[in-house]
Amino acid sequence: MIESLEKMLAKGVDNSLLRFGLGKAYLDQGNGALAAEHLARCVALDAGYSAAWKLLGKAYKSTENLAEARRAWEQGIEAARSHGDKQAEKEMAVFLRKLG
Length: 100
Known about the structure:
By secondary structure, this protein is mainly α. The chain has a single domain (about 1-100), classed as Serine Threonine Protein Phosphatase 5, Tetratricopeptide repeat. It is about 80% helix and about 0% strand. It has six helices and no strands. The longest helix is centred in the last third of the chain and has 18 residues, at about 65-85. It is globular.
């Protein structure tokens, strides 16, 4: 899956959905650094994408970048609130509490 998504990106296709797919795939593989790179681009393209903010925080946490994880989840909570995404808002609030 990653290979086909990377090929699309190489051909000039760049949108939030593609970046989200790449970020999730890399995070699932345990590559938090590449996941964070793609998810950061995803939220730059669509700041209201609460699911991307949630995964971006997880990606940063997996690389021990806790300050950026906190920032991502805080911004994600705001994005979720503005779109009425209560579930994502609750999940990120839990992640923030666990972060300490």
